[in-house]
Each structure stands twice: as structure tokens, then as C-alpha cells.
Amino acid sequence: MAAVTAAPAAAAAPPASVIPASIVPLRGLPIVAVVLAGLIAAIATNSAWALTFFHVAGGGAWTALDLFLGLILGPIVRTMSPQARAEFTSRYMPKMLLIMPTLVTMTLGSGFQLARDYGFLDTSYSRHAWIVASFVIVGVMTTIALGVLNPAGLAVMFELRKPAPNGMLIGKLMKRYLYSAGVTGVMQVATLVIMTRLPT
Amino acid sequence: MNERRLPPVGLLGVISMVLTIVSVIYLASYIPKVPPLGPSIGLMAAAGVVLLANAVQLARVRDFAWRPFRLVFGWALVAYIVIAGMLEYVFLYDHTRGGVLALMTLSLVSFTVNVPLLLGFGVARYQSS
How far, in Å, CA of A103 to CA of A92, rounded? Predict the structure, then answer.
């Protein structure tokens, strides 16, 4: 493990447009609050439609975003100039800090409740092994997201707010972020295989 | 980039989380039955030891960007206390009791401390002290 004590590779002072106004976009918090309130209401009322909506909409958006990030956007960002990459990152990362945790909470919260209501969690369920396999996949994705992806994303945001951000460090962290998003995206496909196995 | 050595806080944080996740998966895979709690107790004890060792080794680091660490750790801790509180309520609401409740509560404590630690360290390691 290492810490940066000096930054000789620091870029010149970034234009004001690159510096993120805040680490977390505060204007988005009410939207997150509404989504989470809806999720809590769906779980509390055990509404089959609402739970299915949160699970399918959240899971679909989460999978599509991860795959798009890792397999399409990642290679494009790597070919951008450092300045363009910094501008993209400064606008993109704050939004992701709100969007991804919200989508994950929507998907997993409603999914667990659906599985409970349908009896999928019960050990007597004929395809219980698939459910346990999905727990393992979610566990691996959680570890990657919380241990690698989120710390890298947050570190990029803090670096961009410095008077002289280190372009090399941002590039390294973004690479780590996009690769880990790609890995979780591929694991999402494995989850989709399991989810489609359950009712068929 | 000139880099200096720091203890493997990120790695140990991930190890502690993995031990916790394995314990939770083990318990969840037996729902609605209560499995033998020995494996889960062992996993959570190991997760706790690793977490404690991680906190101690981080606290002993000199010349570290403690201010950004505390900023990120503090806010993340607030968020995860809220999340853990909601999950604890769900456990009680679903009539989880006894040893399973104790182990699930410990797993929430592990997450509530580990995730802010990982986020705080992940940011502060690149900040100047």
C-alpha cells in the first residue's frame, strides 16, 4: 500500500469547469429519498407489483450501466486526452455516487423481499442452490463495489478538487474504477442467468 | 508519483468484509431454519480480529492525512449507521431472535465500520498530510 506524498506529475491548474462543485450532488438527494421511500413502502405493504417493479427496473438499470461503463465507455475514456478525461470524470463521477448505491439498494432490497414472499429463500425450495449461488455472486459484487470501485471513485473526486490535480493518479484510479465496473457488469450477467432459471 | 509505504488497510478491510459476507451467506442459506452457529461465530470472530488489527495499525500511522480521512469516515459512518439501523429493524420485524440475531447484528456492525474505513483510507492515502 502506498500514499502519494508529492505529485510531480500534477497537471496544470484545471479550468473552473472541471472542478466539481461538491463531491456528492446535493440536488439529487431528494430524488434518492423519494426512491428509497417508495422502496420502503413497497416492502412494508408487500405489494407484488411494486416489489417486482423496483427489482426489475433497478436490476435492469444496474446491469446495463455496469456493462455500458466497463465494456463501452471504459475503452472510449482511455483514448481521451487527459483534459477531456478530467472534464468527463468531474461531471460523471458525482452522479454515479448517487445513482449506483440507489440502484443497488432498490434491486437487492426488493429482490430479497420477493424471494421471501415467493418462498425462494426456504431450504425446501427445489432450486434453493441457485438462490445461494446468487447470494455468492452478490457477495462478490458487494466486495468489489465497496472495496475497490467506491473508494476509487471518491478518491478521484477529491483529487479533482485539488488546485493541481495529479493527472496520472486520476488516470490510474479511473482505470481501476472502470475495470471493476466491467467485472461487476459481467457478474450481473451471471445473476441474470440465475434469475431467469428460477421461474422456468 | 512519489509513493510511501502504508499498512495494507484496504486489503485487511476487504478480508474482514469477505469473512462477514461468508458468515451472512451461510446463515441466509438456511432460512427459515437455524443452522449450527459455530462456523458463523468463527467467521465473525475472525472478521472482528482483522477489523481491530486494521484499526490499530492505521491509528499507528504517523504523517497521514487524518483530516480528509475523518471527513469521509464520519459522513460514511452516519450513512451506514442509518442503513444498519433500517436493516436491524427488518431483522426484528421478521422475528429474527437469539444467536442468529446476534450474529446478524455483529455483521451489520462489521459493515458499518469497515465500509467507512475503506472509503476514508481510499481517499486520505492520496491526500497530503
Answer: 16
